[in-house]
Inverse folding.
C-alpha cells in the first residue's frame, strides 16, 4: 500500500490536447479583465463618453437649439447604459483579432504537457519547452481553464474540458501550488 502511494506521489502526469483559438482568446480576455490598467481604461471610457454627451446637452440647454440638447441628453443616457456592453464587445473583437494574428499557426496542433517532479515539459509539433515548477508565479483557475503564469513572462494554458483526468489535474495543480507556495487565484464564476 505504501509503495503504491509512493508510485502515485512521483508519477509524472501527461495531458494531451489540441490548442484552439478559443483557448488563447479566453486567456487574453481573462488577463484583460484582471489587469488594473485595463479596468481603469474601461471605467474611464464608461464615464467620459456619457459625461461628454451630458456636457454637450447642458451647453445646448442655454441656446435656442433645444433639439440638440435632447439629442445629446438621450445619447448620454444611452451611453451610460450601453458603454459596458459596447466596451466588452470591442475588447473581445480586439483580442480576437490579436489572437488570430499572433497565434494563427498554433491552432489545431496537438500539445502535450508533462508534469514532472521539478519541471513542466511542453511538447508540440513545432518544438518543446521545459520550465521549472519553481518558475510558476501564479495559477489562475476559472471554470474551464488553468493559467500558469511563469516568471519569464509566458503563460501555460491548460484546458480542463479537453482532459479526461480532471480530478488528477486538479490534485497535481494543488500539489504544485502548496509545494512551491504559489499564489492560486480561483474564480470559477468568471465570465467575460
Amino acid at each position: 500500500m505504501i509503495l503504491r502511494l509512493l508510485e502515485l506521489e512521483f508519477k509524472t502526469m501527461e495531458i494531451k490536447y489540441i490548442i484552439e483559438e478559443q483557448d488563447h482568446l479566453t486567456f487574453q480576455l481573462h488577463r484583460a479583465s484582471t489587469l488594473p490598467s485595463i479596468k481603469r481604461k474601461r471605467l474611464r471610457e464608461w464615464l467620459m463618453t456619457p459625461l461628454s454627451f451630458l456636457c454637450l446637452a447642458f451647453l445646448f440647454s442655454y441656446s435656442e437649439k433645444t433639439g440638440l440638447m435632447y439629442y445629446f441628453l438621450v445619447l448620454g443616457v444611452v451611453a451610460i447604459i450601453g458603454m459596458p456592453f459596447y466596451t466588452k464587445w470591442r475588447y473581445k473583437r480586439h483580442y480576437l483579432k490579436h489572437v488570430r494574428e499572433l497565434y494563427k499557426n498554433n491552432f489545431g496542433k496537438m500539445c502535450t504537457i508533462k508534469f514532472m517532479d521539478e519541471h513542466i515539459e511542453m511538447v508540440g509539433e513545432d518544438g518543446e519547452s521545459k520550465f521549472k515548477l519553481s518558475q510558476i508565479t501564479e495559477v489562475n483557475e476559472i471554470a474551464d481553464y488553468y493559467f500558469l503564469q511563469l516568471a519569464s513572462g509566458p503563460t501555460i494554458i491548460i484546458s480542463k474540458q479537453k482532459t479526461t483526468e480532471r480530478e488528477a489535474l486538479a490534485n497535481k495543480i494543488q500539489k504544485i501550488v502548496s509545494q512551491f507556495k504559489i499564489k492560486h487565484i480561483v474564480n470559477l464564476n468568471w465570465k467575460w
